């Protein structure tokens, strides 16, 4: 992998929360204002078809960090009742699962995290992060947010998107002059709910006259949890808040890029922007993500996320990658860009997308297929079709993405689809069989979308560790 100096590249990993790929200007949304992210895409590489591994926060984030699917790391739902951060038993869910930050640290990287963790035992720094400013929970108010600073529980009175940035830039200042490279994770809670009365007026004003044609409010989906998510009762005000949260975050990302430029770091810094999972703001008649419905859903709006990579002088400028990739491909790709070996790579499902970034002419034997799971719900998706299987009894779904890209007509069980469904189901079963840890297999877990309270699988000793979906 080419480098711009003898030093390994610095890495800034920016992660948003509950942001569908549709919610960015550079992804074709003419209503939302994201000038800094649009500029990042114009000077870097934008992935048109990038997917999370699970359409809910904690399992998706664990998969980004470890390269494992949920049925390998055992987080199958968002962590609740304090386990996401500081409260209760504060289980260390990531113990025993190798993270890419640990591999970077072994190679001399400083590692810091500012923002959302939501992977358990948040009071204690983990995965070789030397700087650790994190959220106590998985989300919450943007003013008076519960955070953890230097191991102490604090309440931040200021707008938390700004504070997360300020803490990140302070850490960047402290390591920028060091001879060692740095990794900095900036994990915003934006644009996760709440949306009303939670964002500065100068951002909500931008959308007072917006038509929100990019978020058509359809009749509620038959599976929609209309009594859970506020968007059904007051869609316009919630859309204003959601869009404002994105734009406020975008402004802060601009400050991060300005800091890198002012310190002369851009030429040797990989900047990545990604979301943990997608989100529906009325799309398909749903407010929420995978657990915005029951049965849990895997619509593209729930699983397709934005992904932008920039490394000036190394990665191409303004390139759009059409090939489908997944968050389980992120770890091998990042490590290859950094020139760091992973001794456990053969145990992971991901494939590096670096050859695609650099325009390699070599043909990969990797099928252009992505997989998702959310507890007992699994998905296989290629360029033309998507099949969703729900264990043990269904309902199952099959979509022709060429004729029906918005996934409006379920063709499962209809004449002419059986052969392709059988073929895709077989391919999906073989793939999951190869990578699933039988002790942590999501198809054997009672995931209902209401949160996970303990370690999964055999470790739970038969306890009921998943809550009914009382809130998404």
Describe the fold and architecture.
- The chain is α/β, with parallel strands linked by helices and 472 residues long.
- It has helices spanning 35-42, 57-66, 70-73, 100-106, 160-175, 201-204, 235-262, 300-303, 330-338, 354-357, 418-435; strands spanning 10-16, 45-47, 50-51, 110-115, 131-135, 145-149, 152-156, 182-187, 269-275, 280-281, 287-288, 304-305, 307-310, 319-321, 325-326, 370-374, 377-381, 385-390, 397-400.
- The strands form four sheets. Strands 7-6-5-4-8-1-9-13-2-14 form a ten-stranded mixed beta sheet, with helices on both faces.
- Helix 5 packs parallel to helix 7 (235-262).
- The protein is globular.
Helix and strand topology:
Elements: E1 10-16, H1 35-42, E2 45-47, E3 50-51, H2 57-66, H3 70-73, H4 100-106, E4 110-115, E5 131-135, E6 145-149, E7 152-156, H5 160-175, E8 182-187, H6 201-204, H7 235-262, E9 269-275, E10 280-281, E11 287-288, H8 300-303, E12 304-305, E13 307-310, E14 319-321, E15 325-326, H9 330-338, H10 354-357, E16 370-374, E17 377-381, E18 385-390, E19 397-400, H11 418-435
Helix pairs in contact: 5-7
């Amino acid at each position: 992998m080419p480098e711009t100096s003898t030093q390994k590249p610095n890495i800034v990993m920016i992660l948003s929360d509950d942001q569908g790929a549709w919610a960015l200007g550079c992804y074709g949304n003419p209503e939302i204002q994201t000038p800094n992210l649009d500029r990042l895409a114009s000077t870097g590489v934008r992935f048109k078809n990038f997917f999370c591994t699970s359409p809910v926060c904690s399992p998706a984030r664990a998969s980004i960090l470890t390269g494992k699917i949920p049925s390998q790391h055992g987080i199958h739902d968002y962590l609740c009742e304090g386990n996401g951060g500081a409260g209760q038993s504060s289980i260390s869910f990531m113990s025993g699962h190798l993270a890419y930050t640990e591999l970077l640290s072994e190679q001399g990287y400083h590692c810091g995290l500012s923002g959302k963790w939501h992977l358990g035992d948040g009071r204690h720094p983990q995965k070789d992060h030397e700087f650790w400013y994190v959220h106590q929970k998985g989300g919450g108010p943007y003013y008076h947010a519960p955070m953890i600073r230097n191991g102490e529980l604090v309440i931040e009175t200021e707008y938390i998107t700004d504070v997360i940035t300020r803490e990140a830039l302070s850490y960047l200042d402290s390591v920028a002059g060091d001879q060692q490279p740095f990794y900095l994770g900036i994990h915003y809670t934006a644009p996760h709910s709440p949306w009303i009365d939670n964002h500065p007026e100068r951002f909500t004003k931008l959308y007072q006259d917006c038509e929100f044609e990019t978020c058509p409010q359809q009749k509620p989906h038959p599976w929609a949890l209309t009594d859970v998510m506020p968007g059904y009762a007051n869609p316009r005000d919630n859309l204003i808040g959601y869009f404002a949260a994105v734009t406020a975050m975008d402004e802060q990302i601009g400050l991060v890029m300005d800091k890198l430029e002012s310190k002369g770091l851009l030429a040797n810094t990989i900047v990545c922007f990604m979301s943990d999972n997608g989100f529906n703001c009325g799309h398909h008649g749903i407010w929420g993500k995978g657990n915005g419905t029951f049965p849990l859903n895997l619509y593209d709006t729930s699983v397709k996320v934005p992904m932008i990579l920039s490394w000036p002088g190394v990665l191409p400028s303004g390139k759009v990658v059409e090939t489908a990739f997944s968050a389980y491909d992120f770890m091998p790709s990042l490590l290859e860009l950094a020139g760091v070996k992973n001794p456990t790579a053969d145990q992971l499902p991901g494939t590096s997308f670096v050859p695609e970034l650099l325009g390699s002419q070599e043909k990969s034997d990797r099928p252009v297929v992505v997989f998702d799971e959310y507890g007992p719900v699994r998905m296989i998706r290629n360029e033309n079709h998507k099949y969703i299987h729900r264990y043990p009894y269904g309902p199952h779904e099959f979509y022709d993405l060429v004729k029906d890209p918005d996934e409006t007509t379920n063709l499962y069980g209809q004449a002419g689809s059986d052969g392709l469904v059988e073929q895709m189901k077989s391919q999906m079963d073989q793939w999951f069989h190869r990578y699933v840890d039988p002790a942590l297999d999501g198809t054997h877990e009672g995931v209902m979308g209401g949160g996970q309270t303990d370690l999964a699988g055999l470790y739970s000793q038969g306890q009921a560790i998943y809550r009914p979906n009382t809130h998404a």
